[in-house]
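(Structure overview)
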Amino acid sequence: MLRGFRRRIGRLGESGNLGWSVAALLISLIAAAPILAIGVLAARSSGDTWPHLIANVLPGALRRTLGLMVGVGTLTLLMGTGTAWLVTMYRFPLRRQFEWLLLLPLAMPTYIIAFCYLELFDYSGVVQTSLRALFGFRNAQDYWFPDIRSLSGAIFVMSMVLYPYVYITARASFLQQSVCVLEVSRTLGRSATATFWQVALPLARPALAAGAALALMETMNDIGAVEFFGVRTLTVAIYDTWLDRNSLAGAAQIASVMLACVFALLLAEQGLRAGRRFHHTTGKYRHLPEDGLAGIRGGLAAAACALPVLFGFLLPASVLVHDALAHVAAGLAPEFWEAAGNSLGLASAAAALSVLFAVVLAYARRQTRSKLVHSLSAVASLSYAVPGTVLAIGLLIPLASLNNGIDALMRSLFGLPTGLVLSGTAFALVLAYTIRFLAASLGAVEAGFSKISRNIDAAARTLGASVSKMSWRVHLPLLRPALGAAALLVFVDSMKELPTTLLLRPFNFDTLATQVFTLASL
């Protein structure tokens, strides 16, 4: 057995796959380290903090988190699926414009949208101030107005921002469905509405589950919006326990509960598809027919698509533009440019590192059949599901160990203490961003690899190219569009990332995200 193992390793090294496989395993371990560290840290004693958390903090935080997720999941499914079906199957006024307008809310972080809604609908906001001036009300007891700082307010606002996750996946699924299936349903006497509920919707179930899961992951990761609305979720509980109570172990214990919720969500999403087949048995595919909606029906369809765009983008954007014009001089202070430079530097470094990691992982999986490489590299695909607060706590243990090791080595060799060279610097943020968004980068790179025929690999090897030379001379030029898309995804997400930045940033170090959150919290 040992001889056979050595023979396989030798063949792997001769073919040039050994280096790629080892690099992929190291990257996979880096991605898995925060999750493993959470388990180690949560097992430590937190004194009397954990009993206090169980009795007074966890029940309410868990209840509010689950309530927020149920509300956001329901609304995002309704809005995303409904608008996707309308723009895919019907012709109505401005239909072509709504196809891309419905994506606009994704361009704005949830905490910025939340701040804008507070500016509009809070007691001191524009709407309530105008109502009091118009009707002569003196205080809040003289009239009734929905409280935006509530769980229902958080559900509404976050749903308006996150529904595009479901819209994108649902629309893609509807576009891929065979017209033959829908025509058979209509031939058998089903109405258009019945066809949607009984045929199109079941076929789109995997796509809807994937989109809703992404929206719920973002809901669990959010800290800015829920903080503004006064909703004390698990994420806020982790933040408070770590910084206010100075209990890292207690924060890790809450984080382990949060991780359990994440894995339960992933298992539920997979369970919805278990034992079911969502494919067509016909090869006859044609473009889906579009039914025209005129008059009142067309107006209602246009209104149904316009409302999410209005509440998810136009209203918040109007508040931002108004405030930006009113405070343009104060907004362009030196602190702004410093935060902007920090954000651009961190996001650029994270984008470059994540693309490098994704290329190594995807190329190793392409070139080797090792079950170990494929299994461990799949861990990176789960990185996006780990909330930023959990990831930040999980990185402290390995980074602290490396800090201590480097410090001890430098003391023994040169007598020089190094201090916090990793966890106390921007390196920790770049590494956290890279791990957090590695799944998005890896998905884009693997999609690019899937379009490169393996015959090209065979031809390059026949001409004498090694595995590494083939990657540099053949694959990377062909992957250029995919690499650009992967870098852009990570760059945009890193610019918006708030929870990880709040917990891992060095002292007196701000990004645009943390500066906005700090100013809005004043």
